[in-house]
């Protein structure tokens, strides 16, 4: 089964949690250790990526994960260096509200031939940066959607669906003080049938549940994994929050 089908099939049963690892933050061995604990805690897949990515570190981490864990390894590229042959799929994403065409279609064109040669699955995804937007908002020259303007996010979701994208990712920025508001998530969910991922600033089971209850199909967390001493317990808390939503 390809990764997009795996996500769709899993969603028929429950809302999903994905664990984001930055290959720059730990050794491949440590990444495997964290991923195994996350899987034991109930995470549905591992995402790999960061705002700055070294291709060699990414390859080593993706390969080690593939050899040791049973859930899909999905690339979440911050730039053209975020590509590895060892992953199961890549979120082939366009930063929809960037003011710089490089992040909308430029990096995509530069990376596409390499991805095609590698033969990994591509999942077309619209990426929308919402206030505060964090590092990715700055690096991606985004004009972040104001927190209090759910209709603007909904308009992008409809546009993404019309452009054939399979997923919309609402991003508040890694480590954001506030995650995307439930009102915005609900407005996006109501406006379109596109698969909805929400990430950035989600730290507790309660917050993950709030995001899922508002309409997110998939909740992503990254920073909490880096900050916790017990990954298994923290991921269980997040997964329980999502599944009871
Ligand atoms: C970042 O949305 C992800 O791209 C995850 O954010 O690190 O705040 O969990 P956090």
From TrEMBL:
User: What biological process terms from GO does the record include?
Assistant: glycerophospholipid biosynthetic process
Q: Keywords, A to Z?
A: Cytoplasm, Lipid biosynthesis, Lipid metabolism, Magnesium, Metal-binding, Phospholipid biosynthesis, Phospholipid metabolism, Transferase
What compartments host this protein? Cytoplasm
Annotated pathway: Membrane lipid metabolism; glycerophospholipid metabolism
* One of the record's GO molecular function terms: imidazoleglycerol-phosphate synthase activity
EC number(s) of the enzyme? Answer: 2.5.1.41
Supply the enzyme class, top level. Answer: transferase
Residues bound to sn-glycerol 1-phosphate: 169-175, 200-201, 222-223
Q: Does the keyword tRNA-binding apply?
A: no
Q: Which SUPFAM superfamilies match?
A: FMN-linked oxidoreductases
Query: Which annotated residues bind Mg(2+)?
Result: 22, 51
What reaction does this catalyse?
Answer: sn-glycerol 1-phosphate + (2E,6E,10E)-geranylgeranyl diphosphate = sn-3-O-(geranylgeranyl)glycerol 1-phosphate + diphosphate
What's a Pfam family in this record?
A: PcrB
Q: Is Lipid biosynthesis among the key words of this record? A: yes
Extract the NCBIfam families matched here: GGGP (TIGR01769), GGGP-family (TIGR01768), PRK04169.1-2 (NF003198)
Q: What does this protein do?
A: Prenyltransferase that catalyzes the transfer of the geranylgeranyl moiety of geranylgeranyl diphosphate (GGPP) to the C3 hydroxyl of sn-glycerol-1-phosphate (G1P). This reaction is the first ether-bond-formation step in the biosynthesis of archaeal membrane lipids.
Read off the PANTHER family from this record: GERANYLGERANYLGLYCERYL PHOSPHATE SYNTHASE, IMIDAZOLE GLYCEROL PHOSPHATE SYNTHASE SUBUNIT HISF/H IGP SYNTHASE SUBUNIT HISF/H
The protein in question is named Geranylgeranylglyceryl phosphate synthase
Species of the source: Methanobacterium congolense
